[in-house]
Design brief:
alpha/beta; NAD binding; Hstdl_DH; Rossmann fold; metal-binding; 16 helices; 14 strands; six-stranded parallel beta sheet; Histidinol dehydrogenase; globular; 428 residues; Histidinol_DH_monofunct
Length: 428
């Protein structure tokens, strides 16, 4: 089911599905139609792809109330507890504007302002994840975004998965629209008669949504074009094989393209985990998906020692990294590249997916080498502040002119020179 390999045989990166030429062309046509026709195109495409004929996009208060009636009180309570933890964690990421006066009267600083309007894409159907609503909408709320607009595909009868609606209400989403696919991305990016254009689009989707986000980037900002889910477990002989196997399967069940890798210096643990994976996988509801993931993209890598294990993990730069070792805090200092790190036997990855507080929107496919998890920073913009004093300009102006002249930009130099000459005349 899963291969046991040495470090040299372990692949470092995988090709992320970026879409075929036919898919990209189809998305371009959808974007062009929505840009030209607005609501009419979105309505036509929603009926075509989702089978839903809608008079209005907006989810009503009555539909929110019905959604709460359709889920259990226990689900609502769990969602509220998770939301509270996620909000509390992201509150710690908030930044403040700052200004720093200098002795000569110059003031330099940075203004921090939230984005005006953000769109959150939430998948529907079998890939409906209420937890993603919390992870995408709450950081925007904490950042102070004035309006969060959520789009999600309707079912053929025009309804929305009830847990998704409950999550939207609990996260404080301002408006939920029944639309999905590339047409929803286009509506958010360009705006229509009834859908306001946003400044940024976040949230996961299928390949058509990913292509659409990539194509509208520049018109709006996006979070990232994420690949399939990944987990790397670094474990030593103290790890329980059943725990390791269960954690690997927690990601393998997402998608046949998902990657689950164990890195360990213990050949004994490697052999037992391989057996555990077969036994546990056979009992899963999504066993076909998990088995395909393990077969095609999973591996157990045996290293000489723990330093080599961490070096291999850093080379993979995984989305999720678990350290199930005797002293995980000792080895944390060697972790250089990971979207999120889970330390010790009581920190399985699903705790981070749903409840702990840190964001589960993480860089994939090795991009943890340079990308970070979704955070409050993704929903703010920074403006530099410069207030030069007369004294500072007289002092620094000649240096500015020299640098401008070296680049052949005479008007740049002249904008300084005219002021310096004026000051000299006034002094004379």
């Amino acid at each position: 089911m899963i291969s046991i390999v040495n470090p040299g045989e372990l692949a470092t990166r995988r090709e992320v599905e970026s879409g075929s030429n036919e898919q990209e062309q189809a998305v371009k046509e959808i974007l062009a139609a929505v840009r030209a026709e607005g609501d009419a195109a979105v309505r036509r495409l929603t009926e075509r792809f989702d089978g839903a004929r809608l008079a209005s996009w907006d989810v009503t208060e009555a539909e929110f109330e019905a959604a709460y009636q359709a889920v259990s009180p226990e689900f609502v309570e769990a969602l509220r507890q998770a939301a509270a933890r996620i909000r509390r964690y992201h509150e710690k990421q908030k930044r403040q504007s700052w200004m720093e006066p200098e002795p000569d009267g110059t003031v330099l600083g940075q203004l921090i302002r939230p984005l005006e309007r953000v769109g959150v894409y939430v998948p529907g159907g079998r890939a409906a994840y209420p937890s993603s609503v919390l992870m995408n909408a709450l950081p925007a709320s904490v950042a102070g975004v004035k309006e969060v607009v959520m789009v999600t595909p309707p079912r053929p009868d025009g309804s929305i998965y009830p847990p998704t609606l409950v999550a939207a209400k609990e996260a404080g989403v301002d408006r939920v629209l029944k639309m999905g696919g590339a047409q929803a991305v286009a509506a958010l990016a360009y705006g229509t008669e009834t859908v306001p254009a946003v400044d940024k689009i976040v949230g996961p989707g299928n390949v058509y949504v990913a292509i659409a986000k990539r194509l509208v980037y520049g018109r709006v900002d996006i979070d990232m074009v994420a690949g399939p889910s990944e987990i790397v477990v670094v474990a030593d002989e103290t790890a329980k094989p059943a725990h390791v196997a269960a954690d690997l399967l927690s990601q393998a069940e997402h998608d046949p393209m998902a990657s689950a890798v164990l890195i360990t210096p213990s050949s004994v643990l490697a052999e037992i985990v391989a057996l555990e994976l077969e036994q546990q996988c056979s009992r899963l509801e999504r066993k076909e998906i998990a088995a395909a993931s393990l077969r095609d993209h999973g591996a157990i890598c045996i290293t000489q020692d723990m330093p080599e294990a961490l070096a291999v993990a850093n080379r993979l730069a995984p989305e999720h990294l678990e350290l199930i070792v005797a002293d995980p805090w000792h080895w944390l200092g060697r972790v250089k590249n990971a979207g999120a790190v889970f330390l010790g036997p009581y920190s399985p990855e699903p705790v981070g997916d749903y409840f702990a507080g840190p964001n589960h929107v993480l860089p994939t496919n090795g991009t943890a080498r340079f990308f970070s998890p979704l955070s409050v920073d993704d929903f703010i913009k920074k403006t530099s502040l410069i207030s030069y004093s007369r004294e500072a300009l007289l002092r620094d102006g000649p240096q500015v002119m020299r640098l401008a002249e070296a680049e052949g930009l005479g008007a740049h130099a002249a904008s300084i020179g005219v002021r310096l000459e004026e000051e000299e005349e006034n002094d004379g």
